């Protein structure tokens, strides 16, 4: 049975429990009360330290502040602040967990960024989202709209302190070509839970890059869907967790129409006691999605004892008429052969370890396409390595 927002809500009111046996049946709703308060044992929450969510999950964290949004955008882009009654909001996807539904029902104003039809942005655009401040809670909503045949590069830069939950929409029109870089570079106290909805039109191309460095707890959940044939999405991620940090990335690629392509590649490094990363990658190829071409990969590099990486790729196929599908995951420590090779050529052990880490991340960094962002991330990675003496 294919579960929709309405029939699941009805089933829940009648006390019927529907097991999540397939991502095709995942529950979605804008209604916060349609979701049960998670206890931490549910599949969607079993890796998340619930006490560190500061009440985002159970309704005990009302908004007490607001995040600020500042843009340094290409002149061709249109940036608006709109009310929650704007009919464009919500078209890219529906919340799939209680925190996303809470964020959707709690924001008062949304930011809408539009790339006009047949327009190529003259420069990358940066949108800075600053948290509400230490001890404060805020909810937000942001939408990026790329109209037909448009091209743009947009950087979402998350900084500051506080507790913040939001929904981010990317509505990519027919034959549009967009690169988005979402950077989570929060202060040490910050908690950020974000559901990101990616919707691609016919022959649309989207490169979606998630970079997670700072924060106490960061959980980003991107979902990609295709509105018509020919869509091509590349989902890339880089994360680096220090002692005590929890970084969680949950992806879902929903192939429901024919002739679409998806590529997923996330890489993470961990160091320090109780550093914890979680990567869950779900890909669903529905019966109607013939000629689908998909592959997902996750790699984790554990730099010190006491750190933990969980990696779970899932691939569900409902038709045999596909171009290709696969997934891979690996978690490990330094490659001794690589270190031996470098040391045998006169490179000291510390320098050799740094080279290995840089090489590990290089495949992601070269794909970013924004020199300023790439240089900033390279400097941040170098600072992380210096902090632990790698």
From TrEMBL:
<dbReference type="InterPro" id="IPR037284">
    <property type="entry name" value="SUF_FeS_clus_asmbl_SufBD_sf"/>
</dbReference>
<dbReference type="GO" id="GO:0016226">
    <property type="term" value="P:iron-sulfur cluster assembly"/>
</dbReference>
<feature type="domain" description="SUF system FeS cluster assembly SufBD core">
    <location>
        <begin position="133"/>
        <end position="360"/>
    </location>
</feature>
<dbReference type="InterPro" id="IPR011542">
    <property type="entry name" value="SUF_FeS_clus_asmbl_SufD"/>
</dbReference>
<dbReference type="Pfam" id="PF01458">
    <property type="entry name" value="SUFBD_core"/>
</dbReference>
<dbReference type="InterPro" id="IPR055346">
    <property type="entry name" value="Fe-S_cluster_assembly_SufBD"/>
</dbReference>
<comment type="similarity">
    <text>Belongs to the iron-sulfur cluster assembly SufBD family.</text>
</comment>
<protein>
    <submittedName>
        <fullName>Fe-S cluster assembly protein SufD</fullName>
    </submittedName>
</protein>
<dbReference type="InterPro" id="IPR000825">
    <property type="entry name" value="SUF_FeS_clus_asmbl_SufBD_core"/>
</dbReference>
């Amino acid at each position: 049975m294919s579960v929709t927002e309405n029939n699941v809500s009805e089933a829940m009111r009648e006390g019927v429990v529907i097991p999540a046996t397939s991502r095709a049946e995942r529950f979605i709703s804008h209604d916060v009360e349609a979701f049960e308060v998670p206890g931490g044992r549910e599949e969607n929450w079993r890796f998340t330290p619930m006490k560190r969510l500061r009440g985002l999950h159970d309704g005990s964290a009302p908004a007490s502040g607001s995040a600020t949004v500042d843009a340094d955008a290409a002149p061709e882009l249109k940036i608006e602040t709109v009310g929650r009654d704007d009919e464009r909001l919500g078209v890219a996807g529906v919340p799939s967990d209680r925190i996303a539904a809470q964020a959707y029902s709690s924001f008062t104003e949304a930011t809408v960024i539009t790339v006009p039809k047949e327009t190529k942005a003259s420069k990358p655009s940066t949108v800075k989202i600053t948290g509400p401040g230490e001890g404060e809670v805020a909810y937000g909503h942001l939408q990026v709209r790329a109209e037909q045949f448009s091209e743009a590069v947009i950087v979402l830069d998350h900084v500051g302190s506080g507790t913040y939950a939001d929904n981010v929409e990317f509505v990519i029109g027919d034959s549009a070509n967009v690169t988005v870089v979402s950077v989570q570079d929060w202060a040490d106290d910050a908690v950020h839970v974000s559901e990101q909805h990616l919707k691609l039109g016919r022959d649309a191309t989207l490169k979606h890059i998630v970079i997670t460095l700072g924060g106490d707890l960061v959980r980003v959940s991107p979902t990609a869907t295709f509105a018509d044939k020919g869509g091509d999405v590349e989902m890339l991620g880089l994360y680096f967790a220090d002692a005590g940090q929890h970084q969680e990335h949950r992806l879902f690629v929903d192939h429901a129409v024919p002739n679409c392509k998806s590529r997923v590649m996330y890489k993470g490094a961990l160091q320090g006691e109780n550093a914890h990363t979680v990567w869950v990658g779900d890909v669903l190829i529905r019966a109607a999605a013939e000629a689908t071409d998909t592959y997902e990969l996750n790699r984790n590099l554990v730099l010190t004892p006491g750190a933990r990486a969980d990696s779970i790729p899932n691939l569900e196929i409902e038709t045999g008429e596909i171009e290709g599908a696969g997934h891979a995951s690996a978690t490990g420590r330094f490659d001794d052969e690589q270190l031996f090779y470098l040391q045998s050529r006169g490179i000291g052990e510390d320098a050799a370890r740094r080279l290995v880490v840089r090489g590990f991340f290089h495949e992601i960094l070269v794909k970013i396409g924004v020199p300023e962002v790439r240089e900033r991330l390279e400097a941040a990675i170098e600072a992380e390595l210096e902090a632990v003496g790698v």
